[in-house]
């Protein structure tokens, strides 16, 4: 590589989100999502259940779907679900939104979180 190509590559790596680099395995994410599927649906016909549907969740304002009654904490959180925010929430939901009503301890495996995010990305339009 010529020096200017190395610099350009380094800049892409420095500013590109992890998801843009292909992190996560979709098939493994589909399997890992099974622990989420008892409360959340994803896909073209997804509707809220015990939790909100997660189709197009990346880039969506937290607490904003109309077919789910959110906790006051989630409804007033005011943030947008980025992959980094979802990653933190999947790891420790109560740390990200104290007082939310999701009864889930979190996922300790960064690989499993990356896989779930890869799976969720397949439902972005």
UniProtKB/TrEMBL annotation:
InterPro entries: Cyt_c-like_dom, Cyt_c-like_dom_sf, Cyt_c_1A/1B. Keywords: Electron transport, Heme, Iron, Metal-binding, Signal, Transport. Residues 24-124 form the Cytochrome c domain. SUPFAM superfamilies: Cytochrome c. Residues 1-22 form the signal peptide. Pfam families: Cytochrom_C (PF00034). This is Cytochrome c family protein. It comes from Herbaspirillum huttiense subsp. lycopersici. The lineage of its organism: Bacteria, Pseudomonadati, Pseudomonadota, Betaproteobacteria, Burkholderiales.
């Amino acid at each position: 590589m010529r020096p200017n190509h190395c610099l350009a590559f380094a800049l892409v790596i420095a500013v590109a989100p992890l998801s843009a680099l292909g992190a996560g395995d979709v098939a493994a994410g589909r399997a890992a999502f099974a622990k989420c599927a008892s409360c959340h649906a994803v896909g073209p016909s997804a509707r809220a259940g015990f939790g909100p549907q997660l189709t197009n969740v990346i880039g969506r304002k937290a607490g904003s779907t109309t077919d789910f009654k959110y906790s006051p904490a989630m409804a007033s959180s005011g943030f947008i679900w980025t992959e980094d925010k979802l990653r933190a929430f999947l790891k420790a939901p109560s740390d990200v939104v104290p007082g939310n009503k999701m009864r889930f301890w979190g996922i300790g495996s960064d690989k499993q979180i990356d896989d779930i995010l890869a799976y969720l990305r397949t439902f972005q339009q």
